[in-house]
Amino acid sequence: MKKTTTALVAGILTALPWAVMAEDSSDPIVIPVHNWSSQIVMSNVVGQIFEEMGLNVEYVTTDSQAVYESVRLGDVTLEMEVWEGAFGASFRAAMEKGGIVDVGDHDAVTREDWWYPMWTKEACPGLPSWEALNDCAELFQTAETGEKGRYLDGPVDWLKHGQERVEALDMDFVVVNAGSAAALWAEIGAAEADQKPIVVFNWTPNFAEAVWPGEFVEFPTWVDGCDKDPSVGPNPDALYDCGNPADGYLKKAAWDGMEDKWPSAYAVLEKISFTNPQIAEMARLVDVDELEPEEAAEEWLATNEDVWRSWVE
Amino acid sequence: MAALSEGAPAGFAAPALGRNRVAVVLLAAAAVLTVAQYGGLLPAALHRVPESAVPPFAPMLDAAFNFVKDDLGLLALTRWLTEGLQWVLDVTANLLFGKRRWPNLGPIPWTAIAAVAGVVGYYLGGWRLALLGAGVFIWTALIGQWKDAMETMSVLVVAAPLAFAIGLGLGILAWKHRAVDAALRPILSALQTLPFFTYLLPAVIFFKVGPTAGAVATTIYAIPPMILMTTLGLQKVPAEVVEAGEMSGATRWQLLRHVYLPSARTEILVGVNQVIMLCLAMVVLTAFIGMPGLGAKLLSMMGSFKLGRSFEIGITIVLLAVMLDRMSKAWVVKQPVHHEKGTSWWRCHIHLVVGTVLFAAFCVLGQFVEVATEIGRRQSFSQGKLIDTWIKSFLAIDAVQAVTGFLRAFVNVQILIPFRNFLLSIPTPAFILAVMAFAMWLGGRRQAIVAGVFFGLVALSGWWDRSVITLYSVLSAVAIAALIGLPLAIAASRSERWSRRILLACDTAQTFPSFVYLIPAIMLFGITDIAVIFSILIFAMVPLIRYTVEGLRTVPAEMTEAADMAGATAMQKLWKVQLPLALPTMAVGFNQALMFAFFMVIIAAFIGTQDLGQELQRTLAGTDLGKNFVLGLCVALMALTFDLVILKWAKDRKRALGLD
């Protein structure tokens, strides 16, 4: 209780000059949190910055796909991590319906693709090239996949097109879909126990990089249209015959009423931009140092004051 | 299906003879169709319902929902109710974890809550419960999960009383008016078999994402047993008691308030116990729709592969459940205390006084000592990393890997996958005929027709293959659970002590949040069918064991003595006397196991399946209410078929054995 009081007092003191300038509403800014750590910490960091400005903030836990509908309706005020690959479609769909605005990109880039933990490379030294991976396919076989190797894709509803790629590039792999991110980690964890080679769907920035060092498989480089025009990419008759873009965007989004209701908060949100190392650092505080997200956010704000001060002033 | 029919004795009583013949005919027809399919003689339209023939149930339901929601103004009504509910939840949220809302008093220090729990425990059941009550809260605080636990509790303390009040009211109505009873019964059975994902989405749409939707879903989920127990209790009130009430000139209201309800106290309190347990089970699952608290924490811990801390959260939930369960059961047993006239007020309310004083004292203390108010992550005693290493080193043991490797290579590849492919290869009409044959054989004509209609609807839903895969997981898991659970239960039922131990283990296993089982399942078996079945089977084994133990132990002593006197060996006694007599009770356990399996198979979508659960989980992320309902109904219809047939059989059998 004491901590919050001091934080409040500090908040009010620093906010005094602001209170004069901006006429931000005193209604709470509702920030959604999802179930992965970097997003939770980042949301808390932004929330604490807003609190420093004397605004009210509230966090709600929401589904990471359904949140765009909530932002659109104003039930939730903003979204800190819009991943091009994972949420681009939901975001664009909400944009078309109206009510949500694009508040610009972070410096950070995102990448989602086939990935393997480092110990896999010892068994299959030709990696990260995809041809080499295909030549080692038998290393990845399981009781259920028989002769072929197994590639563990993300949940079906993430729509990662692993199956299409295997067909387009004629690979000796069977695609199995995990039911959740947790299932992916459990498989990697189980493989780690006896250093079994494994190739799974993964993405960056992500806590997994800190726990299991690894690399992405290098597929034919992404060319625009690879997912729409069969002639693009090495296989002239198939879609999805390239790797995913290696530098996907990471956006911020907000409810279109935010700018009017909390103008100064909106101005800050526009300036906020995190880099890959900063996001990894936030995830590390929670995933490796085992801090609670709020504490991790406090810690990050304390050590990176020079970064975020410039956004506020 | 083969596994299910094993439960029935081969030579059934005389009136069933005609029934059996019909069943055989149905089965033969199914076999002919299947063979025709294998021979390539069956037209495709008879193999699977063609897409064009599938009625657009989902858009129809969507239209109906939209009509009710927007045109009839239900959404406006529920959103208005949401405001009220939100206000109540804000109050509890403020008190328990200090959300900044009126009355801005909280958070109550953990020491104060633990002290009150201790006093309540002492009042209900002496030192042991006092220790349990206080101990659970102290554990929660020390392990560093206080805030999450309180987020969960803040919803629980609203949802449970709400479910109690609604359930009691509806129960009384159902008892008074036959029409209400008749209208409620089918709804209740449907509610009890609908997968919980189907409660969640409408809750979100009508009551906003977050705690309000969580509270509503939890409340609805917990109402049915309260209604059933209330009606049961009221029906059992002896006529003499009622007459005594009438003679003393009580009005109808007085009669209800002072005669009926106190007489039905025990049943009603059992209902309360059920409400609390179901609320706790559900409130954790509402993490899927953004309810913060222990469930959400558990999901995010699992999502970042922190097995140790997931496990600790699991323990906290179990402890909370055990505490609430024991306390509410103690309340059932405890009779109201009547003090002699002239006892001073504070002596009558000694527990209240002590509780209040301790509460106030700790609240004051909390103002000065921060640790007495909340324990941060850094001060907590969480051992997450240590448990992580334990789990990992356990998995790295060669023997463990050899066993799981064998199970994967043999059970999965040789048995489970062929079984699944076989089920999928059966033409839809043949499948329905086989289910009808099964219903005919165990239940009767009425059951067979209902089974046919229910499975026919599933076939028309357009989700047939996924439904069959769901059924396959359920049947395989229950069959394996029976193979393991029944011998265990039979062995345990031989001694009082072991029976008690195994029942305690069952109780505990049941309170564990169901999705904690998923992670060890994946780590042991990878993302395979066997992992899915393994997680279901742990969950489904509980009722099987419990009812078998209870069935065997309640075999009338005269019967076993008669067997002893006739010189039966222990084996003969078991097979010829005890098991046949216990079979109806065991069948109820079997039925429960199936219902649990239908519940768990949906959660197992988290591992990675191709069944209805996977599609259901997908709908949660959107606003696809129609599809969500169609999928939910497929699960419910299949579960209801088994429910109807098996319970009918158990009832007939009980009557035939004169056990009723």
Distinctive features:
A: 313 residues, alpha/beta, D-Maltodextrin-Binding Protein, domain 2, three-stranded antiparallel beta sheet, disordered N terminus, B: 660 residues, mainly alpha, MetI-like fold, 29 helices, globular
Question: How do you describe this structure in short?
Answer:
The complex is a heterodimer of chains A (313) and B (660). With 313 residues, chain A is of the alpha/beta class.
Per-chain topology:
The complex is a heterodimer of chains A (313) and B (660).
Chain A: H1 2-21, E1 29-33, H2 37-52, E2 57-61, H3 67-73, E3 78-83, H4 84-97, E4 100-105, E5 111-117, H5 119-123, H6 130-135, E6 149-153, H7 162-168, E7 173-177, H8 181-193, E8 199-204, H9 208-211, E9 214-216, E10 250-255, H10 258-261, H11 263-271, H12 276-287, H13 293-303, H14 305-312
Parallel strand pairs in A: 1-2, 6-7, 6-8
Antiparallel strand pairs in A: 3-10, 4-10, 5-8, 5-9
Helix pairs in contact in A: 2-12, 2-13, 12-13
Chain B: H1 2-5, H2 17-38, H3 44-47, H4 57-71, H5 74-97, H6 110-142, H7 146-176, H8 178-193, H9 196-207, H10 211-235, H11 239-247, H12 252-263, H13 265-285, H14 294-303, H15 307-333, H16 345-348, H17 350-368, H18 384-396, H19 398-425, H20 428-442, H21 445-460, H22 464-492, H23 496-511, H24 518-525, H25 529-553, H26 557-565, H27 570-603, H28 612-620, H29 625-657
Helix pairs in contact in B: 2-20, 4-29, 5-7, 6-15, 6-17, 7-8, 7-10, 7-13, 7-14, 8-29, 9-10, 9-28, 9-29, 10-13, 11-12, 13-15, 14-15, 15-18, 19-22, 20-21, 21-29, 22-25, 22-27, 23-25, 24-25, 25-27, 27-29, 28-29
